[in-house]
Amino acid sequence: MQKRIRLHLMVLSVVCALVPFLGAGTAAARALDDPDLTRRVAGTPVDKTPAKDDTGPRDPVPGGFASWNALFTEQTRLNGVADRIVSAAESAESAESAEAAEGYGGIVVDPEYHEVRLYWRGQVPRAVQDVIDVGRQTAPVSVLPAAHSRAQLLQEAEKWTEAGQVVGAAPQPDGSGVQLSVAGQDTTPDQLQRPSGATAPITLERGERFDPAYSRQDDIPSYYAGGRTWNKQTGSGCTSGFAVWDKYGSPGYLTAAHCGNLWNQFYDGGGTGSAANYMGPVTWRVSHRDAAIVQANATADVFDGNSSASSSNRVVALWKAYVGNFVCNSGASLGEYCLIKVTETGWSGTYTNGQYVKHMVRAKSSVGGCAVAHGDSGGPVYSYTNWYDEVAAQGITSAISKPVYCGGLDGGRVIVFSRAWDVALEFGAYVMVH
């Protein structure tokens, strides 16, 4: 059985990622699960048999955890608490409470800390405090002071990006200011002219340029996420993302908008020379989210392992990614890599192709390694659930920065991805899950 999860869209340009979550597997803490976002459908592909893989990530386990299972179980427990706190904070803001609108500064959910860290400016509203108190029955929650609200910092980050002096900007997760991505290795803060209304402190991440991540290898229907794709009109190679139904019920898969324009024809890794490899056309596209839908026969599975692997995992949920979380990129070029930690959410920036994106997620290899390679664009970003053969969709790979050796590939240690949850919402689409 599969379920439909409805989402909205926000895109950027590099690699894919997916968002909020409904638990899967065992009795670990669950995130928010809105029944209005899920629909069950019958049907299991009869045209191929999945090569099930229950070994989990191959990368070294970080943070002193005994296994990746232990790490993702802890992360799931903490994210479930964080989801409810953030929902309460957003509800308080929408109610136009003055203290709430100026209060929420950010949140960090790092499994290596074994706690949720909430940053708040001023007094925490009673409704939010009640949710915190309930959350503390499941996991430790620290409430720390924030100098600025996240709403203010998001506005200022967009002002910095639109001013053209930086290649990207995002709120600091602790509410202390705005982090700016600049191309120059020697750029200093005093060389930048503040946009009108931007008053928060800034810090610089130097030597950044965000290239769209163009370029296991010959999938067949029903298509999995993580497979090689080719655009017949442009010749560019990308990666297939999570399977979806569009707002009219047509099946397809998510990919990056920079991988193709509307009605461009996509083929699988077998190449554009044979009609047997034809997947379908681009039918939906939003540039500022760097997201698109290719209409095709796709299903709720994702390739794992290296770039030539045929093994796969089941997509069972849609989760949010928080600062401090570990996520996996599984692109057709690099293969699966899970030593990636989220550093910023709400990131806005301009790619080297001139494409402007906003409300993206920025992450980097926690060990300075290769997090993404060219050709991974459009591919899936996910976390494992309590089981090694089940994953939760979180994003769509969009862009790459900070070049690093990738075993002969053109790659980088920084990845930008759009949140699958936001993308689905914008498209009025449903993410397929088992």
UniProtKB/TrEMBL annotation:
Which SUPFAM superfamilies does the entry link to? Trypsin-like serine proteases
- Enumerate the InterPro entries for this protein: Peptidase_S1_PA (IPR009003), Peptidase_S1_PA_chymotrypsin (IPR043504)
Tell me where the transmembrane regions lie: none
Where is the stretch described as Disordered? 39-62, 186-215
Q: Where is the composition biased (Polar residues)?
A: 186-196
Q: Which UniProt keywords apply?
A: Signal
What's the name of the protein?
A: Peptidase S1 domain-containing protein
Species source reads: Sphaerisporangium flaviroseum
